[in-house]
Amino acid sequence: MAYWLMKSEPDVYSIDDLERDGREPWDGIRNYQARNFMRDEMKVGDKAFFYHSNADTVGIVGTMTIASTPYDDPTQFDKKSKYFDAKSGKDKPRWQLVDVAFESKFSRVVTLAELKANPKLADMRLVQKGNRLSIMPVAKKEWDLILKMV
DNA sequence: GCCAACGTTGGC
DNA sequence: GCCAACGTTGGC
């Protein structure tokens, strides 16, 4: 089983939204590296941290499980969606996604500042300067450590 | 709101 | 293939 971290702006979609919905397509990813993780590497049953970016309190807010195999992100075909991609098409779709399912909401946010302050997490891409990747793998030892920080 | 870092586009 | 210009991300 693999572990992941997935970012979302809570103004767009938050951990509370996922808790309410139970399960949701992780749509709108328009970065090839992030897409490749979903399309090529994620497996049903993998676990992921839910991370709030561009929020009052930035950090990890809960966990979820990968709930589907990859499929085409429908928003890329939808002209009314802000994720519409005119350069994609049903014959040559560019963007794939997976569904995620709610697993847990932390009792508090494990903040980015705390993650940065922990020397054992220095290898995480999340805490490195200039990181903008919205989906990234997490090592099992990092996963276990972060769960203990809650 | 600012701005640094990064990814993508497009001219050449 | 290079690289400048541009747009976006995301922390602060």
Question: What topology does this entry show?
Answer:
Blueprint: E1 3-8, H1 15-21, E2 23-25, H2 32-41, E3 47-52, E4 59-66, E5 71-72, E6 96-97, E7 99-111, H3 112-117, E8 135-138, H4 140-149
Parallel strand pairs: 1-3
Antiparallel strand pairs: 1-8, 2-7, 3-4, 4-7, 5-6
This protein binds a DNA duplex (12 and 12 nucleotides) through loops.
Structural account:
- By secondary structure, the chain is α+β, with helices and mostly antiparallel strands.
- It has one domain: ph1033 like fold (Roll).
- Helix content is 22%, strand content 29%.
- It is built from four helices and eight strands, in the order βαβαβββββαβα.
- The strands form two sheets. Strands 2-7-4-3-1-8 form a six-stranded mixed sheet.
- A hairpin with a 6-residue loop joins β3 and β4.
- It is globular, with a radius of gyration of 15 Å.
- It binds a DNA duplex (12 and 12 nucleotides) through loops.
